[in-house]
């Protein structure tokens, strides 16, 4: 991750809304999940907060990812019920046509059935 940050800092893009651009907020989305999986709650929350601050409102699926990462952190900390409920609520706020395979797989990982 540290190497990825070094490369990002040297090559990061300013474009904010392309599916292919990786601005600072998106880099934080990418960092949030492995940190949450590793139980690095403080660093994961910092990445999530940084991403939320700059995330364009026109990209709600990324906000859903971040909230589901928070649900994963709750589940990994021992409260699977609260984590699953948090993640499910985030997924339910997103229109079903925007539910990606990645989001469904994440829901399965957290403890839900992954269905829209």
Helix content: 55-70%
Please state the structural category. Answer: mainly alpha
Rg calculated over all Cα atoms = 14 Å
Question: Number of helical segments?
Answer: 6
Oligomer: single chain
Distance between the termini: 31 Å
Question: Number of DSSP strands?
Answer: 0
The unreliable regions are none
Q: Sum up the overall morphology in one term.
A: globular
Strand content: under 5%
The H/E string reads: HHHHHH
Largest sheet: none
Mean pLDDT metric: 86
Q: Can you describe this structure?
A:
- The chain has 116 residues and is mainly α.
- Helices cover 68% and strands 0% of the residues.
- It contains six helices and no strands.
- It has helices spanning 2-11, 24-37, 41-54, 60-76, 80-93, 101-110.
- α2 (24-37) packs parallel to α4.
- The relative contact order is 0.12.
- The model has no long low-confidence stretch (mean pLDDT 86).
